[in-house]
Amino acid sequence: MPELPEVETVRRGLVPRIRGRTVVRADIRDGRLTAPVDPREVGMELDGERFTEIGRRGKYLLFGLETGRTLVSHLRMTGWFHHRPPGGTDPPLTHVRAVFELDDGAALLYSDQRRFGTMRLLEPGELDAYLRLRAGPEPLSPEWTPARFRADLRGRRAPIKACLLHQGIVAGVGNIYADEALWDARVHPLRPGGDLSAAQARRLHAAVVAALERGIDSRGASIRDYRGVDGERGEMQERFAVYGRTGEPCPRCGTPIRKIRVAGRGTHLCPRCTRPPSG
């Protein structure tokens, strides 16, 4: 599933290509994408709209429209936006679920093999309430501080890995960047979130921010389906310290990386650098 760095890379790729462009025709082909609203209804509402800004909150893409409405998109597992330039030919995409034809002759295509992605057209004033129920603090913004992070962990008995994946605690972190941050901070994924000391919380907070920034600098991680809007692969997978490196040496101490399950998710760690909690 694309995480914050991948979604931010998509956002940055979309801004120079579609900001200021008007939708000539929106062809939404999959009812699951806009359910329970009829995709034809959403498409007709988008016809003639102009993209004024492309934002992001956690893993959500926010397409700001001239009327004050917002088209909110979540890529889920296999969603992918591709920009076809004016005069260009359609890329070799399968599972195209929506096509937005633009006034400059370009088109924005949305492909989604597993059909878990969503699009919601929100009226002016509805965005804050929509996101409040789905996304906590933005980790790359000043609102997410070590003090807030530790306060949100207080009293939690769930493993810290599960806490990092909880979008209400911090938005946008998924399996990949949680593993990388926990290794960097030397915090075992099974340690209860509420047991972290102030020093550990500060260290993990900094590690989360650093892991996400590395991901953005690398244009995300292309492990399976993810690509940028230009079709290019990300490079973060070449910089992983632990994720997907089971049996390979830890970059810090040389101990073979181990894979366990935490909160139902495959989790990679160094058994020497990150000692398990007692008991």
Descriptive notes:
The chain has 279 residues and is of the alpha+beta class. The protein has two domains: 4-132, MutM-like, N-terminal (N-terminal domain of MutM-like DNA repair proteins, Alpha-Beta Barrel); 146-269, Helicase, Ruva Protein, domain 3 (Orthogonal Bundle). It is built from eight helices and ten strands. It has helices spanning 4-18, 31-34, 39-46, 127-132, 146-153, 160-165, 175-185, 198-217, and strands at residues 23-28, 51-57, 60-65, 70-74, 79-84, 96-102, 107-112, 118-122, 258-262, 265-269. It has a four-stranded antiparallel β-sheet with strand order 1-6-7-5. Helix 1 (4-18) packs across helix 8 (198-217), helix 5 (146-153) crosses helix 8 (198-217) and helix 7 (175-185) packs across helix 8 (198-217). The longest helix has 20 residues, at 198-217. The protein starts with a helix and ends in a 10-residue tail after the last strand. The model has no long low-confidence stretch (mean pLDDT 93).
Structural class category: alpha+beta
CATH superfamily label of the largest domain:
MutM-like, N-terminal
Total helical elements: 8
Straight-line distance between termini: 32 Å
- The total beta strand count reads 10
Q: What overall geometry do the principal axes of the alpha carbons give? A: globular
What is the radius of gyration? 20 Å
| Structural domains: how many | 2
Approximate helicity band: 25-40%
Largest sheet: 4 strands, antiparallel
Topology as a string of helices (H) and strands (E):
HEHHEEEEEEEHHHHHEE
CATH architecture of the largest domain: Alpha-Beta Barrel
